[in-house]
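Record type: monomer structure entry
Structure origin: computed from sequence
Chain ID: A
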Amino acid sequence: MIMMSRRHWLMTGAGVLLLLALPLIVPQFWLANILGRALAYGIVALSLTFLAQYGGFVSLAQTMLAGVAGYAVAMMAPTAIPLGPLAMPYGVAIPLAVLMATLTGALVGLIAVNTREIYLLMITLALAVGFSLFAQSNSEWFRGYEGIRNIVGPEIFGMPFRTHTVFYLVTLTVAVLLYLLVLYVVRTPFGLALQAIRDSARRTSAIGFNVALHRIAAFALAGFIAGCGGVLITFYNIGITPSSIGLWPTVAVLVMAVIGGLGHPLGAFIGALIYAVMDTFAASIIGHDRFNTLIGMVFLIIVVISPDGILGLANRLVTRAGGKSRTAKAASIPAGES
């Protein structure tokens, strides 16, 4: 177990170093529009994966929580058009926006604490669609259809946040920290209790754990993660509108998580990268109107071939290759030497 853990961390470190070196290798267009965007949306998908894998909840409210943070930072942004009465420096607006998403996540958990499976899906979907429609109809704070524009983000070491390299490196840093946070949390007593609740809430309650409180805390943590992604997505889009948090973006985050694989936090980023590449290039080849059909077909094929996503398929291929290698090595040893 120790050796596997060391190998896992070595591979993670090597992957992070490779990602840090990408600005020196790949074109600037790829940094922000594909890799940076995939990381930002992958963070939102990570919040869904965390709930699904370790809590047993498939929530469709994660895009809404990202939207709460996005609208909060937009309403407080000092560069917003139109400028709101709550304008303040980005250094204050960003933490407050993430806090709003965290509290909203706890509220969603409080509402959905006693529901599971299809009922949880329907409640969280209703909350997501309801928030989008509310933002669409509210012109005083949310600016209706037009939304809030010119959310360019803070300067980092004197450089604009929207600079391709800056946006990519900041988003990568946030994504890695949140990924490590999830890996850490699931090994803490809270994370272990949450997984026990996932397996059997009744038994976990019988040994003294507060099931409802753990579920609400899980939703709050997922809200924190989604809020970080929502702020970054708002900076990427240079604003936020109701259409960016509507039904299709909600489904898109679920598609990303499922394509990558719900069994491990890394799957969220793999799925987001696949989705970003397809959205960038496939739309120009087959037409944007047919993109939904294409992503639906890809989703269906992956789910049929590998229900646990690309990451699950890759793990099985590696395991199979390792098994064949060990079998071939054993077969090559003479009987007298065994």
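Annotation 1: DSSP finds 13 helices and two strands in the chain.
Annotation 2: The two ends are 26 Å apart (CA to CA).
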